[in-house]
Amino acid sequence: MQRRSKLKLNKKNMNKNTVSIILLLFLFGNTFAQLDSYNYKRKLDKVSQESSCGINLSPEITARCKSNLNDIRIYNLTEKDTIEIPFIINRPPAETEITIPFELINDTHNEKCCSYITLKFPKKQIINRIKLDIAEINFDKILKIEGSNDNKEWFTISEHERIVRFQNMSETFSYTTLDFQNTEYAYFRLKFDDDSNEKITVLNAYAFENRTVDIKTDSVKISKYVQTENKKDKTSVLMIDLPYNYMLNYLTLESKGKTDFYRNVNIYRLSGTYHTNNGEEETWEVISSGVIESNKKNKLNLYGSQTSKLKIEVLNYDDQPITLSNVKLFSEQINLLSKLPASETIYLAYGKENAGAPVYDLIHFQEKFSDAVLGIQYGPEEMKPIIPNAPKEQLITNKKWLWVVMGTIILIIGYFALNMLKKETQGK
């Protein structure tokens, strides 16, 4: 009886030990599998005590991210588990566009020279942007912007403003937004030059006070840029290659020479490539359009577009090409705000295809980060190892392989456990 009792007790102990080993192996594998599902990670510097912190994402980190930063995570590795730490992406808008209501009056036409529209505001109003809705498909019009407080005495705000639209079989371009310095009047008048071409029909107008938020940016590296001329299309094309797939906020550029110019531009980003019989072909997506001038600072918004290659198309029309120079690109500084625990094993993980944006309660408590300590540092980038010539299914379904490995370990443990039990039974 004592032998049987000891035998049963040994069986129970062995079963408990086996279960404990299996659970430890599972927790160990699951802990690192969660973090290793990301292509890149960086270890944060030691956090000595729990506190509200800010982590600045370098342009190279955001360049690795997918799906508009949806794939960023913060993990704390403990002995037993991987804990996901909630965070807030601190990313204020670069501009705030406030719509200003007005009454459109005096849509008149002088056959000898020009046509007018007047915007009447209830009181003196600061505006710096007017958008026009034009009926015609093709036009190229020069206009003047004037201001008045009594609709009698007029003052010049800006001259030689240009709006344009053309549409043909191969391309379409439209630029009907007027940007000018902050100006305060009760009346604003647009005077269109009809002497050189036909009158256009203004269907509607929209007035705005565009307030620019002073955001912090980092300059990004440019691998190279090359300008070419297309005499047939009367355009100049500047191709810009970047070392990373940067998220770009805006660009600035200048021109060589002293020639006065006023040119419409389109900006495209490389959106992909596809294979043809003639080799790889690139596909492009318009991300911005505007005007560059010889007597203004040329700053063009890129709206956080992510790309590794840009194309700037300058419409020369019948003028001589200009040579662009001193091109600079800027990426917005983005911070993650989070309450980090005291730990030496906190990781920033990023770079995961088809990751959904996380949903945290923390988004409702942003005011608690007003005293966040910014500038938490992190180590060098650690890249997920890539297995050469590995089948795609193996990379995609790594959780299945984890279960296969764990099943094998369980079988091995079971085999040795049975052998030990058999030897002990024979010995008794």
Secondary structure topology:
Elements (H helix, E strand, L loop, with lengths): L1 H35 L3 E4 L7 E7 L1 H6 L8 E5 L4 E3 L3 E3 L4 E6 L2 E8 L3 E21 L4 E10 L6 E13 L4 E4 L1 E17 L8 E11 L4 E3 L4 E7 L4 E22 L5 E15 L2 E15 L4 E18 L7 E10 L1 E7 L5 E5 L22 E2 L7 E2 L8 H5 L1 H30 L1
Parallel strand pairs: 2-23
Antiparallel strand pairs: 1-22, 1-24, 2-21, 3-4, 3-22, 5-21, 6-13, 7-8, 8-12, 8-13, 9-10, 9-12, 10-11, 14-20, 15-16, 16-19, 16-20, 17-18, 17-19
Helix pairs in contact: 1-4
Structural commentary:
- By secondary structure, the protein is an alpha+beta fold.
- It has 4 domains: 1-38 and 390-428; 42-91 and 337-383, no CATH class; 95-212, Galactose-binding domain-like (Jelly Rolls, Sandwich); 217-332, Galactose-binding domain-like (Jelly Rolls), CATH 2.60.120.
- The chain contains 4 helices and 24 strands.
- Strands 6, 7, 8, 9, 10, 11, 12 and 13 form an 8-stranded antiparallel β-sheet that branches. Strands 14, 15, 16, 17, 18, 19 and 20 form a 7-stranded antiparallel β-sheet that branches.
- Strand 9 (139-148) and strand 10 (155-167) form a beta hairpin.
- The longest helix has 35 residues, at 2-36.
- The model is unreliable at 5-9, 18-32 and 392-396 (pLDDT under 50).
